[in-house]
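User: I've been trying to design a sequence by hand for this structure and keep getting stuck. Would you show me what you'd pick, starting by listing the structure so we're on the same page?

Assistant: Good idea, let's start from the same input. This is the structure you sent:
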């Protein structure tokens, strides 16, 4: 439903992978053999020893990545996150193959994940049903005879997660973090972002042309004749362009004030006189309420006009298009599935081939039954000792942040006290939730892939909507436990480290501290720093949007941050320059995170009496190992299409800059590798916020 229901900020990254031709372990349903193996925390084979670490440290640490870990045909990139994610998928695959065996000894949990997965894997059953599975949904659209019937249909679309016009759901109140409120936000675009509809240049013109062709192809596959499909696709493009025009751009969306407009229901109704909101609310079955957050008021005024200016036949074609676009490809007939991949996978992200079916079905089971599948994953993959070590590391890094705040020369005593108060209120979610979600009311029927997917989607939407008006559950998890990612949530003021990312390559409780603090310690520092980046700093320790800064300190922060904006705006990929403002929060977190992780490591090393001068068996001192671990987090290779997509839409900088862009700001790095003033990795004037 609502994109905003995701924690407001800040997934740590994208993702990882090794293609070591290792064990072969065929599965009962003929899944691919296991080909992804753990990567060592310091992998010397990845390093380009001919490169000078003081000229380009990323090249030095990761120069052989592309050779050793080429991009697979079913992916737009290869990196450490991808590798670990593929490894985790293999683990989940084994779990699901076991659960899919239809016998009476399975518990309720195993029945749900096993039957969901088995139905998804049954490609021939999906194909046999063809468009028949989709027909009841298409019939709903056919029955529309007037635009004033739209709210009920859009309500249904909210429940099954179809992106038509808008998003409606619940949200933690930015200004009262104890409660869940109703919210509506802009939506309805088929291209990744507003600017895709307007940017000039040959590449963008080409993407728009391909997009219209894609919409044409989808409508044809749904039964329209060639001429009608082409005419409808052009009209849909016009409709979406009009919606894009009144949409808020992604950079502006990063300021929480720009997406927070609480208003009485009457006021929203006045913005969109021809859209009967009460019909939408009641058709979703959500609790009643009197106020709502209208994230982008201008959009809704604009949407009213777009609907008024568009004929009903075009709206119906648009609804058919968005329906197919939003439903997962694995439950659709093959021709539609392939057409969707061809545009979004191949043309937009540059991926040559679709993932094999078992990977997609594993991914989808993880997405719709996250805590049913995740529970089994945790039992198998995340021992108590690992959790204890991760928790201890986070505490060390929080202590480093406390000391860092105390030592800042640009912040007043008053703001420092508030910053520390916030820091001490950060909640740490590590590994897995304390209580697991109950799926007993969700029906999973073996052999009904389409129905299972819609029911599971609706189950989750209703769970989200039921929150409206209720207190916030601070123990809720927003990601599945096998997820290879981490995030900070400003409304919760918590950091989240699912067990999926607390694994080899990034974290291994049996390995030395230098590598652990360099790898996962960086992520921990990164997420904690998000609480204090340009966006996170606007929230207080309780998660309320509440300015706790003095004017002078706020000005100093902005000035310090500008140094980072300017630094990253100089970087480019291909002919696309990075957006220093869009990436500011992530770059601040990368820089702060690396400092905190290093400080925490040095404190721990001092406590443990570690000799920082002595080289390990690898030939590197502990500090050098720390920086190598840090840089190897970002070893990657991306397809040019993905680089472009990320440079224009992603708040994270491309990996090379996530390594080198930070290290040039750390004199400790230059010292550890004996770099000299004037060398590229040594900057005369460093940027530093935290
Ligand atoms: Zn981040």
């Amino acid at each position: 439903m609502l994109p905003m229901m995701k924690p407001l900020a800040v997934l740590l990254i994208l993702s990882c992978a090794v293609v070591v031709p290792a064990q072969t372990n065929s599965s009962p349903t003929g899944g691919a053999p296991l080909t992804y193996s753990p990567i060592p925390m310091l992998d010397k084979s990845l390093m380009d020893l001919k490169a000078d670490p003081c000229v380009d440290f990323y090249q030095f640490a990761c120069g052989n990545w592309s050779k050793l870990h080429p991009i697979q045909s079913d992916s737009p990139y290869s990196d450490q996150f991808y590798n670990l994610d593929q490894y985790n998928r293999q683990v989940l695959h084994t779990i699901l193959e076991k659960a899919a065996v239809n016998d009476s000894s399975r518990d309720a949990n195993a029945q749900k994940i096993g039957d969901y997965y088995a139905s998804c894997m049954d490609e021939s059953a999906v194909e046999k049903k063809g468009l028949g599975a989709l027909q009841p949904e298409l019939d709903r659209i056919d029955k529309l005879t007037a635009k004033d019937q739209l709210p009920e249909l859009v309500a249904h679309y909210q429940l099954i997660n179809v992106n038509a016009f808008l998003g409606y759901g619940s949200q933690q109140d930015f200004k009262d973090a104890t409660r869940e409120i109703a919210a509506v936000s802009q939506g309805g675009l088929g291209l990744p972002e507003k600017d895709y509809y307007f940017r000039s240049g040959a590449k963008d013109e080409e993407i728009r042309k391909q997009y219209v062709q894609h919409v044409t192809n989808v409508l044809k596959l749904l039964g329209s004749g060639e001429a009608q499909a082409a005419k409808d696709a052009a009209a849909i493009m016009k409709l979406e362009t009009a919606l894009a025009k009144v949409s808020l751009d992604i950079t502006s969306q990063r300021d929480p004030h720009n997406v927070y407009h609480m208003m009485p229901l009457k006021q929203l109704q006045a913005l969109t006189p021809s859209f009967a909101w009460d019909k939408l609310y009641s058709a979703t079955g959500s609790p009643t309420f009197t106020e709502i957050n209208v994230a982008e008021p201008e959009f809704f005024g604009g949407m009213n006009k777009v609907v008024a200016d568009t004929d009903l036949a075009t709206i119906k074609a648009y609804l058919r298009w968005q329906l197919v676009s939003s439903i997962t490809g694995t439950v659709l007939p093959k021709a539609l599935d392939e057409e969707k991949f061809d545009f979004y996978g191949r043309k937009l992200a540059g991926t040559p081939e679709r993932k094999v079916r078992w990977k997609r079905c594993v991914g989808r089971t993880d997405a719709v039954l996250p805590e049913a599948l995740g529970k089994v994953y945790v039992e198998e993959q995340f021992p108590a000792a690992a959790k204890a070590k991760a928790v201890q590391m986070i505490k060390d890094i929080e202590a480093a942040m406390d000391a860092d705040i105390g030592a800042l020369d640009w912040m007043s005593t008053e703001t420092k006290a508030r910053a520390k108060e916030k820091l001490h209120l950060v909640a740490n979610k590590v590994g897995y939730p304390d209580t697991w979600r109950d799926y007993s009311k969700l029906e999973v029927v073996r052999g009904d892939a389409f129905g299972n997917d819609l029911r599971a989607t609706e189950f989750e939407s209703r769970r989200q909507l039921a929150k409206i008006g209720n207190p916030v559950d601070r123990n809720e998890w927003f990601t599945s436990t096998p997820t290879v990612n981490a995030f900070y949530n400003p409304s919760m003021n918590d950091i989240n480290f699912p067990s999926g990312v607390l694994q080899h390559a990034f974290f291994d409780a049996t390995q030395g501290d230098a590598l652990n603090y360099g790898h996962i310690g960086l992520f921990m520092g990164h997420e904690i720093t998000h609480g204090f980046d340009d966006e996170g700093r606007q929230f207080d320790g309780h998660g309320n949007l509440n300015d706790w800064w003095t004017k002078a300190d706020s000005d100093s922060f902005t000035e310090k941050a500008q140094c980072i904006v300017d630094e990253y705006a100089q970087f480019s990929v291909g002919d696309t320059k990075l957006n220093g403002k869009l990436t500011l929060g992530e770059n601040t977190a990368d820089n702060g995170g690396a400092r905190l992780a290093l400080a925490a490591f040095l404190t721990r090393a001092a406590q443990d009496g570690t000799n920082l001068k002595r080289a390990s068996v690898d030939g590197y001192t502990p500090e050098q190992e720390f920086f190598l671990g840090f840089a190897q987090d970002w070893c990657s290779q991306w397809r040019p299409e993905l680089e472009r997509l990320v440079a224009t839409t992603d708040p994270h900088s491309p990996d090379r800059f996530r390594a080198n862009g930070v290290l040039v700001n750390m004199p400790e790095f230059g010292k550890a590798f004996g770099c000299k003033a004037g060398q590229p990795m040594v900057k005369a004037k460093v940027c530093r916020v935290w």
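That's my pick for every position. To get oriented when you compare it with your attempt: The two ends are 36 Å apart (CA to CA). The first helix runs from residue 57 to 62.
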